Automatic annotation (TrEMBL):
The keyword Translocase does not apply. This is TetR/AcrR family transcriptional regulator. Residues 28-47 bind DNA. Keywords: DNA-binding. Pfam families: TetR_N (PF00440). The lineage of its organism: Bacteria, Bacillati, Bacillota, Clostridia, Lachnospirales. The keyword Membrane does not apply. Residues 5-65 form the HTH tetR-type domain.
Amino acid sequence: MPEYTNTQKKILEIGKKEFLKKGFKDASLRGIVKEAGFTQGAFYGYYPDKVSLFEALVSEAADGLMEQFKAAQDAHFDLIPGDKAAQSRNLSTEYLECFINYIYDNFDAFKLVVCCADGTRYAGYIHDLVELDVAQTERYHAELEKHGKLEGHVGRKLHHMITSAYFTAVFETVAHDMSREEAVEYVRELASFFNSGWEGLLRLK
């Protein structure tokens, strides 16, 4: 966690409030500076533009989740040598609960990403997660097929649509301001629903 000066903390606090209220596109840098009580010169001493301020608020949490997700995807491959591929869906559900708690530990950052990021590189964040998941899962399925541990097949278009629906549904917890307790129960039910669907299409051995 970076160390911030009091001035920087105030800029971040006011900036977050402005972005949450208006979204990135409509947020006013001049308004942020004015409410913070600083000159624009003081602001530019910390952030060169509105984009960098937004990224300072979200990048650590959003990039951290992406890295955790990549590690979780890799962990599935470790199930194959131990003949534990059938546990893959349970593993996914366990990781999902870890992810939702991480999201709620950084709720404001993910609220900005999910609801306020249009016009920034985080506008496609959910899509990026979907693309990563589809690519990694296809690699995993190919490895399972090679070892005779997978029955059934799903085409890429359907795979992408299902995964997109899943991730969109997961982040509805943030969009609708669910409590952490509601969110955890919701994603458990969501995982159960989607796991049943995947089991109907692909049977793991």
